[in-house]
Amino acid sequence: MTDHIQSAQSRIFIKNGTIVNDDQSFHADIYIEDGIIKQVGTNLVIPGGARTIDARGKFVMPGGIDTHTHFQMPFMGTVSADDFYSGTKAALAGGTTMIIDFVIPQKGESLLDAYEKWRGWADAKVCCDYGLHVAVTWWNDQVSKEMDVLCSEKGVNSYKVFMAYKDVFMLDDDEIYHCFKRCKELKALPMVHAENGHLIAIKSRELLQQGVSGPEGHLQSRPEEVEEEATTRAITIADQAGAPLYVVHVMSKSSANVISKARREGKIVFGEPIAAGLGTDGTHHYNKCWRHAAGHVMGPPLRADPTTPGYLMDLLANNDLQLTGTDNCTFNADQKAIGKDNFTRIPNGVNGVEDRMSIIWEKGVYSGKMDPCRFVAVTSATAAKVFNIYPKKGRIAVGSDADIVIWNGEATRTISAKTHHQAVDFNIFEGMTVHGVPEYVITGGSIVMDEGQLKVTQGLGRFVPTPVNSQTVFGRVGNREKSRQPQIVEREPYTGPVVEIKEEDALVYNKRSDNPILPESANEFHSRPPTRGGARNMQDSSFSLSGHQYDENQPKRPGTKVSNPPGGKSTGFW
């Protein structure tokens, strides 16, 4: 009897809505039971006791998947304000029914230990389903072995490297290459935070020395070219390793162009713009209010060019960029104030997990840049395919999880820190009125948003393993590798003479100068031979980097004293 009542309580019938998937939209009804979509169609025969929701005039879509969050993350001496409870609660309020967070070990920390720590933080708190990426912040054989265990036993299929945050998370190019190569072997997806960490460190020091200490220094220390260069380098390294690549938080026109160009060249690259970069810009760094300016500090930074959000949305609409996250990593005013006298100490991070779906609907669909099917692709379906959980997630179909949002595309809401569900005291979209509002949100078959009223349950969400070998990512890697095998030319062996190099000569030949600017020769000045008459070649330089003069050891020549007035003597033999 109890089972029957429980089953009846989990039955939901959604009728008269327009179902939207990434490839089609159509009018049909949906029957849900025990957290799974059981029927999709018209004239459905359903058991009694189901809750009926009339979705007439509304879109019925897969719940959003936010590919990039940082809940209760230890960072820059503090911990992000949104934990796995408030963060997932806010996600559901905005129509997102799954998040993928990042495990970020400290340098030298076991990846497995860090993974278990994040699971411990999340499992008891999450209100919706979640997955985990793992960051690789150091490299050796132990890390390589632990990646295998994470893939085979722990449900992880993606690994992120940092090219920024020098001496904290950053890897060097050779380490990145080995990590990407290992990902390819495991059929896991390498991800990259693409900024040139060396240049950022140098520029930051220079700006502080010049008296720039406010949030505007953050933007100026990380110019667009720093992101563009690192994106180019990361794509090159991944391609040489034979691996695909996922570029997180694409923030600039130039880095987006690099990704678009690489895809047209046949490289397997995925670009992830985020809600912040699609919804606002970096002019706020120059705001007179320090709190307002610091509230927009994130890395890579929001760009000062106000046309950037529209440009990124154009590329997202047309699949030059593929899917969206938020990089949600929130800090309150007192946390941001750690860097009140030094912009390099301002904790990096902004909000977005609650507002992503509405921002993309407003800037993408309502503006006429994308249709509702593309909206589903960039907010859930492509993410589900890339992280290999499709069609369990990211689709309205029989057998899929009942993660559903009933969306009113004409309704509006005004975004504000006063009314949002996140645990942070600031919102970068403050005062923005957006079209697109979730009226019902269903996660795992439970209605958590009911006619606009949020009713969540802590711990209701589950960890969702992401299996390796996503065909969206690796479907062409195998054949591509076969076509790229090194070419060996079969030829007759060389049988002619080979010069003999004595051991002592070999050592001299292989020795590299400590200062390659100076010649190996002990002769500091002259590299040209003397003339046929034995004199110094006048084309030879008498300049030395050491400051010595070529004739400083020569004795002084005898001089002749001449007493003539300025201009010379006016009397003579004529």
UniProtKB/TrEMBL annotation:
PTM description: Carbamylation allows a single lysine to coordinate two divalent metal cations.
Alphabetical list of SUPFAM superfamilies matching this protein: Composite domain of metallo-dependent hydrolases (SSF51338), Metallo-dependent hydrolases (SSF51556)
Catalytic activity: 5,6-dihydrouracil + H2O = 3-(carbamoylamino)propanoate + H(+)
A GO cellular component entry from the record: cytosol
Domain called Amidohydrolase-related: residue spans: 59-448
Region (Disordered) residue spans: 514-574
Claim: Hydrolase is one of the keywords in the record: yes
Top EC category: hydrolase
E.C. numbers: 3.5.2.2
Residue stretches of biased makeup (Polar residues): 538-547
One GO molecular-function entry: metal ion binding
Name this protein carries in UniProt: dihydropyrimidinase
Lineage, highest ranks first: Eukaryota, Metazoa, Spiralia, Lophotrochozoa, Mollusca
